[in-house]
Amino acid sequence: MFYKNILISFFKSRSSYLRTYNGVITTFGNYRSVLPLSTTRLALKDEKVKVTFNLYDGRKIEAEGKVGDTLLDVVVNNDLDIDGYGACEGTVTCSTCHVVFKQEDFDRLAEEAGDEERDMLDLAYGLTDTSRLGCQVTLTKELDGLEVKVPESVNDARS
Amino acid sequence: MRRRAFVVKWPLERLSARSLGTSNVAKQAADTSDIGNLSTRPPACPAQGQRSRSTHAVASVLESLGPAVKSWDEVPGPKPLPLLGNTWRFIPYIGGYSVEHVDQVCLSLRKQYGKCVKMAGLLGRPDMLFVFDAGEVERVFRGEDAAPHRPSMPSLNYYKHELRKDFFGAEKHCAGVIAVHGDSWAAFRTKVSRVALSTGAAAQYTEQVGEVADAFVNRVREIRNSESETPSDFLNEVHKWSLESLGLIALDTRLGCFESREGSESQRLIDAVNTFFLCVGELELRAPWWRIYPTTMFKKYVAALDTILSVTLSHVERALQECRDNDSKSLLQDLVAAAGPRVAAVTALDMFLVGIDTTSNAVASTLYQLSQRPDVQDKLYKEISSVLKGRPLRAGDVAQMPYLKACIKEVLRMYPVVIGNGRQLTKDTIICGYNIPKGTQVIFQHYVMANSEEYFSKASEFRPERWLQRSTYKHHAFASLPFGFGKRMCLGRRFAELEMQIVICKMVNSFKMEYHHEPLEYHVHPMYTPNGPIRIKLIDR
Ligand code: HEM
Ligand code: FES
After folding, report:
1. Is residue B41 classed exposed, middle or buried when 0-12, 13-18 and 19+ CB atoms within 10 A define those classes?
2. How many CB atoms lie within 10 A of CB A156?
3. Is the pTM for the entire model greater than 0.95?
C-alpha cells in the first residue's frame, strides 16, 4: 500500500515539476567542455575554426566548428559521414572517436588527456603517441586549419 | 510489517549465479542478420583444422569470397546429455562443476577445449559461448550495434515488464537500463549517461564521499577486536559504507547506515537491498517456480524491490523540492533537469540494484590484498602523503595518485568482482572462426584472460607498476575490462572509481594493515570475493 501511495503522489506532483524544470537547463554536455567555456562562448560565438579529417580510406572531409566545440561536436553538428564515429556520444566509454594529431598540433592542445580519457585510449584501435579522443579535445582559435587523421576500425574491421 | 522480520546482515552464503553478465534472459532482440550469406555457405571447410584467429590467416580452399567459417555445431565444449543437457553438471557432488567455483570451471574448460567453448543444453537458457581470446572479445565489442544486449536476470525482467509495468511502462522508454534492451535501453541510456559518465561528474562528490569514508574509518577503528583486527563480519560494514556512499550519489541523502536504527527509512532500505541480494540468487538458480505462482521467496523479492523503488521515489521528490529552493548541483538534480523525475528515480533504482555489492566487494578484496603487501602499502602511503601534506582530501587530489589507481586496477585484473561480462548476439557473428548464431549468449571470460601469461607478462604476480604510464609490461587491453566496454559500459564507473580510490586512500593513510591468518580462497558469491572472514589487523599510523 505504501508503494501505491507513493506512486500516486509521485504522479500527481510530477507534471508541475516538469514544467518548472524544462528550460532551466537545456544543455547537458560534458562538464569540462561546457562549464569553463560557457562565459567565453558568447563572446567568441563567431570564432570559426576549420578542421580537416583525413579518413583511413583516403577521403578528406573539411568542416567548420566553433571555439569551445569538441571534435565530436564538429562531426555531429555537421553531420559528417564517418562511420561509427562517437558511438557513446562523448561519454568516454567507446574510443570510436579516436583521432591522431600531427606532433606539433598535439603539443599545442589546450588540455592534456585526463585519466578517463587515457584509460579509454588504451582501448583505441591503432593507438599512437599523438592519439586523442575527439570527444575530449576542444577547439581553440589557435587550432584553426587543424588536420587530424581518423584511423581505421571505428567499426568492425571485418564486416 | 514483514520487512522487520529480516536480519540486517548481508548473507554470508549467497548461492547465486547472478553476475551482470552470466545470467539469463528470455529470448528477445529480433533484428535482421546482416551477414545472411553465411548461412548459405557450406557448414564447414574440411581443409581447415585451425581455430582462433585463423580466419585472418588461412584462405578458404573452397571459397575465394572470404575466410572459411566453421559451423556452430563444430564448436568444442562439454557434450550435453540427452534430456539432461548440461545443467546436471552443476548439480552438487555429481556434476563436477560448482557454481561457487565457476572461476575454476572456466579455467579448466579453457585448458580442455581451447579458446572458445560451447555450453549448450542449459535448461531454460539460450546456448552460451565462452570466449577466452582477447582479440575476439575486442572484435565483438568493436562490432557492436546501436543497442548492445547484455543478458540479465529474468526475475527482474518480470518485475519491470510484467508485475510493475504500470510504472515502468507508463511513459515511453522509461524502464531503466538493467533488464532492458533494444530501443528502450538506448533511449534511456542516452538520457542518463551524459550526466553520470561525463568526465568530472564524479569529482564534485569528492568531499562528500570523503566524509563517508572518514565515517567508515572511524567505524572500523571502533569495532576492532582486542587483537586490533576487523571483526569477521567486516564485509557487512563495507556494505554499509557502499550503501551510504551510493545514497549520497544517487539520492542526495545521508542514509545514516552506520548508526541506523530499526524501523528507520535507511534501515528499511538496507533490509530491502539485503533481501534483494538474498533472493535474486535463489530465484535465478533454482527451478523458476515463480513463473507459475508467487512463491514466498518471490513475494519477499517483490516487496524488497517495491521498498527500494518507493524510498527512491520519495527522495527524488524531496530533491525536486530542494532543486527549486536552491540551485545546488548533484547527479540527481542534473538528471531531473535533463530528463525528468521519473528517469531520475528509475536510474537511482538501477544504481541501487547493481552499484552496492560490486563496489563493496571490490573494496574488501583490495584491502585484503593490500594487507598482505606491506611494501605496496608503503609506496601508497608515500604517494598519498606527498599529495595531501597533512591537509584533508580535496577534489582533484586522487588524480595526482597514479599508484593508488594502479593498485585498484591490478586487484580488479587478478580478482575481477564480475568475473565475466557478456553479450547476447543481435546478429550472426563470426567468433574464433565459427559462425555463431544470433541469440547466443557470448560470455567474455575476463577472469581467465586477465590472469593468463598470454595477455599479461608476470600475470600471476601483483604488479601495480604495469598500469603506470610507459610501463614495459605486456598487456592486452581487452583481456581485463572490469567495467565492460562501449555503449553499454558500467554506468556507475566514475562513481565506483571515486568511491574506491577515496576509501582506500583514507584506510592506507590511517592504518598499517596486516593479515595473520590462513590465506583466503576466492569464490563466486555472486561477486568474486574472498571466501571467509576478512580479519585485517589495523595498526594506527
Ligand atoms: C567496482 C565496482 C563496479 C564494477 C566492477 C562494475 C562492473 C560493471 C560491469 C562489468 C557492467 C557491465 C558493462 C558492460 O556490459 O559492458 C556494469 C554495468 C552497470 N553498472 Fe557497474 N560496476 C561497479 C559499480 C557500479 C556502481 C557504483 C554503479 C551505480 C552507481 C553501477 C551501475 C551500473 C549500471 C546501471 C550498469 C548497467 C549499464 C547498462 O546496461 O546500460 N556500477 N557494471
Ligand atoms: S565518443 Fe565514445 S569515447 Fe569519445
Report:
1. middle
2. 16
3. no
Q: What is residue B448's three-state secondary structure?
A: helix
From CA B122, how far away is CA B117, in angstroms rounded? Answer: 14
Are B184 and B57 a contacting pair, CB within 8 Å?
no
Residue A112 CB neighbour total at 10 angstroms:
9
The cell for A74 is: 564538429
B537 bridge partner residues:
B229, B514
Ligand 1 binding pocket, CB closer than 6 Å:
B 20, 150, 177-178, 189, 246, 350-351, 354-355, 358-359, 362, 417-418, 421, 482-485, 488-492, 495-496
CA B499 – CA B115 distance, rounded (Å): 35
- CB atoms under 10 Å from CB of B296, counted, come to 9
SS3 B331: helix
Q: Which residue has the cell 547476447?
A: B424
3-state secondary structure of A153: coil
| pLDDT tens, position by position, B488-541 | 999 999 999 999 999 999 999 999 999 999 999 998 877 899 999 999 999 999
Q: Which three cell numbers stand for residue B317?
A: 521528490
Q: What angle do CA A121, A127, A131 make, to 5 degrees?
A: 70
Distance CA B490, CA B263 (A): 33
**Which residues are bridge partners to B70 per DSSP?**
B434
Pairwise CB contact (< 8 Å): A32 & B199: yes
Residues of chain B positioned with their CB less than 8 A from the CB of A88: 193, 486-487, 489
**Contact flag A158-B198 (C-beta cutoff 8 Å):** no
The answer, yes or no, to whether ipTM is higher than 0.85 is: no
